[in-house]
Design a protein that fits this description.
114 residues, alpha+beta, 4-stranded mixed β-sheet, 4 strands, globular
């Protein structure tokens, strides 16, 4: 695998979702207005090819966030782990914002290309 490259458009979309989830107190990949992550990434960030999103709640330190998503305890599909280790992803955007229930939340948005 090659290293993921930082993407300004993906970071903007990740931040938008993290702020939305934090203010609303919600969790998940659907925005509070009902927009699915795929629409945010494809329409606003112009992501193409394979895309994915990871969300983490309650972990403040970056290493703790990554470890939690890699271990993926309680997630039968291990989807977060698979996203982090997916070799087709080349781009990532990450945001960590306040959350009114979990203190903090992190959103990672991944894309194959633009």
């Amino acid at each position: 695998m090659s290293a993921l490259q930082f993407s300004d458009p993906l970071t903007k979309i990740a931040r938008m979702h993290a702020v939305d989830m934090g203010k609303s107190g919600k969790v998940g990949h659907t925005s509070s207005d009902g927009t699915p992550f795929s629409d945010r990434l494809r329409n606003k960030a112009k992501a193409k090819g394979t895309i994915a999103e990871n969300c983490d709640y309650g972990n403040e330190e970056p290493l703790d966030i990554v470890m939690s998503l890699l271990i993926d305890d309680g997630i039968k599909s291990l989807g977060h782990r698979k996203n982090i280790l997916e070799p087709s992803f080349n781009w990532i955007g990450i945001a960590i914002e306040d959350h009114k229930i979990y203190r903090v939340n992190c959103v990672m948005d991944f894309a194959e290309r633009f």
